[in-house]
Specification:
- This protein is of the alpha+beta class.
- It folds into 2 domains: 156 residues, Up-down Bundle (Butyryl-CoA Dehydrogenase, subunit A, domain 3); 115 residues, Nuclear Transport Factor 2, Chain: A, CATH 3.10.450.
- The protein has 11 helices and 7 strands.
- A 7-stranded mixed beta sheet has the order 2-1-6-5-4-3-7.
- A hairpin with a 3-residue loop joins β1 and β2.
- α1 packs across α6.
Length: 288
């Protein structure tokens, strides 16, 4: 990978994740799509030739990766079938505020084309021409999708939030509580006994560790510091550990990790300490 592409990807990563998370309705899935898009960009770059608009090129790749993800998940294949041209004000500040404040799950209630146009215009500040290039649609189609998406977001904003609070079942809750208790006691040997043989750890934007022995090194690194205190939590319905300031546990979370258990063992940890951009819009709740 060239140094220029590496620098571009590092600079663009938070913006690209913001787009991917809202397209998929999930911070975690958004990170998966982002990583897929980055791999595709690295693979395509040597064959791409001179790139007039590198940022737009990356957004186009991320957009296509998000669509691939959505098709796999929902077998969705019609983007603009119900759109027709109508006026949309590109500089609608009210719409921009509503879009920026909308929960990730709210965007999932918009059709894909509307969702993409609203995110690119009202969250990320792209022009009609730039959006047209990213999603490969005419400007009239972009305007139509933008108008309809904004209208629907306003309707959704007026609805009461009846989304039930996520809960963890047993034994996930007990396993998560045991993990947090042992971590805060710095009893990392006890945590290692929880690891499945095929356990894996991903420190997002840094490294991956596969297998019980490699994953165990994650806790060796954690044992070198005492500035972490964990509380059990839920991120998008998944068991999570939320890192707080030991001197002020009620303060805003510092970062979080998502855990996955299987057959009574800890199978996976995804640590987002080096990917703080995921805190933007994440559905993160403490359970105690």
């Amino acid at each position: 990978m060239s140094q220029s592409l590496e620098q571009l990807l590092a600079e663009m990563r938070p913006k690209l994740h913001r787009y991917c998370a809202r397209m998929t309705g999930s911070t975690i899935d958004g990170e998966d799509v982002l990583q897929e898009a980055m791999i595709k960009a690295i693979e395509a770059h040597p064959r791409a030739g001179p790139i007039a608009n590198p940022e737009g090129w990356l957004f186009r790749i991320a957009h296509n990766a998000a669509l691939d993800h959505l098709r796999r998940r929902a077998r969705q294949d019609a983007l603009f079938a119900d759109e027709d041209p109508m006026a949309a004000d590109p500089a609608d500040e009210v719409a921009a505020r509503q879009a920026s404040a909308a929960a990730l799950r709210t965007f999932m209630r918009l059709p894909v084309a509307q969702r993409s146009c609203v995110i690119l215009m009202d969250v990320l500040g792209h022009s009609l021409e730039e959006i047209s290039a990213v999603i490969d649609a005419t400007i009239p189609a972009v305007k139509a999708a933008l108008h309809r998406g904004r209208t629907r977001l306003r309707e959704l904003a007026a609805e009461p939030d009846d989304n039930p609070l996520p809960v963890l079942g047993e034994p996930e809750r007990s396993l998560l509580a045991a993990y947090v208790e042992r971590f805060n006691a710095r009893d990392f040997d006890a945590i290692r006994t929880m690891l499945a043989d095929e356990a894996r750890v991903e420190v997002v934007n840094r490294t991956r560790m596969n297998g019980r022995d490699e994953a165990g090194r994650y806790f060796t690194n954690a044992s070198r510091g005492d500035d972490w205190r964990l509380v059990p939590g839920i991120v998008e319905g998944r068991p999570a550990t939320i890192v707080v300031d030991p001197s002020d546990p009620s303060a805003t979370p510092v970062h979080f990790s998502v855990l996955r258990f299987a057959d009574g063992r800890l199978l996976e940890i995804r640590d987002f300490r080096y990917a703080l951009y995921v805190l933007d819009g994440v559905d993160l709740r403490k359970t105690s």
